[in-house]
Amino acid sequence: MSVRFGPSGIGGVKAAVSNLEEFHRLGLRACEVAYTYGVYLKKEDAIIIGKRAKEMDIKLSVHAHYWINLNSDEKIKIRQSKKRILDCCESAHYLGAYLVVVHVGYYGKDREQAYQNIKSQILEIKEEIKKNNWNINIAIETMGKVNVFGGVDEVLRLVKETGCSCCIDFAHLLARYRKVNYSEIFEKLKETGVENIHIHFSGIEYGEKGERRHVKTKENELKELIKALPKGKEIVIINESPDPVGDSLKALEIYDSIK
Ligand SMILES: [Zn+2]
Questions:
Q1: Contact 244, 206 (CB under 8 A)
Q2: C-alpha distances in angstroms, 253 versus 183, 249, 250, 258?
Q3: How far is ligand 1, taken at its centre, from the CA of residue 167, in Å?
Q4: How many whole angstroms from 43 Cα to the centroid of ligand 1?
Q5: Axis-axis angle for helices 182-192, 152-162 (nearest 10)
Q6: Judging by DSSP bridges, how do beta strands 196-201 and 165-169 pair with one another?
Q7: With pLDDT > 70 as the criterion, what percentage of the chain qualifies?
Q8: What pLDDT is attached to residue 98?
Q9: Which in 59, 165, 197, 219 has the greatest CB count within 10 A?
Q10: How far is the CA of 6 from the centre of ligand 1 (A)?
Q11: How many Å lie between the centroid of ligand 1 and the Cα of residue 123?
């Protein structure tokens, strides 16, 4: 099996290649480009960075903008959200990234209606990706706040019904449900037939409404996750803690010690 660890954040355009070289030297083989505040790499730069990542066998993914709501009451907001996701998909294609991770939106008044609205937007996005021959998929992320769309079951239902992929953010799930059963989630994932398993991992602080903030990753939580990883799958584990490189290395060390 192949399990890759790496940080969220490739750095600015000038630092990206040297950061990748450093990740490679440290043994990290994944990195998520954070377009959370917008696409910041030009096409030419994305191509150069992507080529270097490929040479060093670092698997890239992209995180799309935070400002997205595919279930807005306002049509213009849905249009803008879709454009933001597609801009990320285009840049991800130039980067040679395999996934674009998306926070899809809010529930509004009716949860099932929210699901249906989000589903139809995802199908349209997938259609656009296909039309453009972009070699990527979008991955819907499990979310940490209870009023935000992104519970495990609804995300996996989208995977089954639209062919999108998913990003299992375990810190978010812990904040949302107060406890996480890793094997149960991997079992559910298996039922969807999803090929690549994309994971976000870090420590988290949470309260009544769920997620408050990401904190440094706890060693015992890392161990529990690593022991539960399914065999024979391509797995990417992106760390989103305040020290994503240090925590990715800690995870790699634990992985090497128990695999
Ligand atoms: Zn996210």
A1: no
A2: 21, 6, 5, 9
A3: 8
A4: 23
A5: 20
A6: parallel
A7: 100
A8: 97
A9: 165
A10: 15
A11: 20
**pLDDT higher than 80, residue 206:** no
**119-146: burial string, b at 16+ Cβ within 10 Å, e else:** bebbeebbeebeeeebebbbbbbbbbbe
Q: Is the pLDDT of residue 137 over 80?
A: yes
Please state the pTM of the whole predicted model: 0.94
Tens digit of each residue's pLDDT (9 = 90 or more) over 88-134: 999 999 999 999 999 999 999 999 999 999 999 999 999 999 999 99
Minimal CA–CA distance to 221: which of 206, 248, 202?
202
Residues near 6 by beta carbon (within 8 Å), at least 6 away in sequence? 23, 28, 29, 30, 31, 32, 58, 59, 236, 237, 238, 239, 248
Task: Report whether pLDDT(181) > 70.
Answer: yes
User: Cα(102) to centroid of ligand 1, in Å?
Assistant: 7
